Amino acid sequence: GSATVTVLGLGMMGHALAKSFQRNGYRTVVWNRTAAKAADLIEDGATLAASVGDAVAAGRLLIVCLSDYDSVHEILDPLDGALDGRVLVNLTSGTSAQARQTAEWAARQGCVYLDGAILGVPAAIGSTDAEIIYSGPRGAFDTHEETLQKLGRATYLGEDHGLSSLHDVAILTLMWGILNAFLHSAALLGAAGVRADAFAPLATRGVRTVSEWLTGYARQIDARDYPVLDATIHTHLATMAHVVEECEAAGVSAEIPSFVKALADRAVAAGRGDEGYAALIELFRADSVTP
Ligand code: NDP
């Protein structure tokens, strides 16, 4: 028969994961605390397990996607020995410390463990618009890569189980930075009666242009050397003052631009005014943060 995959957790995301396996012809065994969420999956041929134990017994490859790591432990910890010989892929969001602790716990259960993080929304699952990053034993990833690719682009980051959560958090930081900047600039334009949908194309091109600078910045960051290629921090700082002034005049929040300006002020105070913008990373590094 066809390969079996077990999916534990049928929330917004777990449901999309199960659906994707099913669509790709896998024998899909599902379990959810609230069984009703499995209704349409059962209709399409999935098997609803009566208990977590039954779900785990159904096949070797287990995918879990719950609200948080505490929930994962709540359902799996009581399974005395049942995880022995299984491959557990945990796609629940958390911190790198939680991922590493769960890896140690899994080793005690005799279970092969991959930690993962989903970069994408449920509707993107099953397409390359969803990227899922994995960390843990390379061999386990290689063995199951073809199956995992059914959920979205699967990227392996390394043996340290904390790497996927760590990268997830980094990507979230990037995402909120971009989204907050867009919301803020839309509010500034909105105060002047400019509609966000009129601004969106210009904003999209702006984000794309800036995204093309990242590789060059990365080289400077890794070298810890920030030669100025376009504009000095001094030049940026002068423009930052205009942004704060414009926001204050429009009566919109000046919090984000004031913070941005304060960072550049600190870089200048540290003697970096004639360096390139990437030098600001020195304000964020662990060895420069004062407790
Ligand atoms: P939902 O709130 O839709 O689903 C949560 C799931 O966890 C449900 O299956 C719920 O069961 C289950 N659950 C929660 N607590 C317990 C518990 N104590 N015991 C058993 N089951 C429990 O969340 P999502 O599906 O959206 O998110 C799941 C994970 O995926 C999260 O870690 C999230 O960060 C991550 N993720 C989600 C994205 C999204 O866009 N939705 C994007 C990227 C990652 P029940 O149905 O019975 O309540």
From TrEMBL:
Keywords associated with the record: Oxidoreductase
Residues covered by the 6-phosphogluconate dehydrogenase NADP-binding domain: 5-156
Molecular function via GO: NADP binding; oxidoreductase activity
Domain NADPH-dependent reductive aminase-like C-terminal: residue ranges: 160-285
Family: Belongs to the HIBADH-related family.
Protein name as catalogued: 3-hydroxyisobutyrate dehydrogenase-like beta-hydroxyacid dehydrogenase
Source organism of this protein record: Nocardia bhagyanarayanae
Lineage: Bacteria, Bacillati, Actinomycetota, Actinomycetes, Mycobacteriales
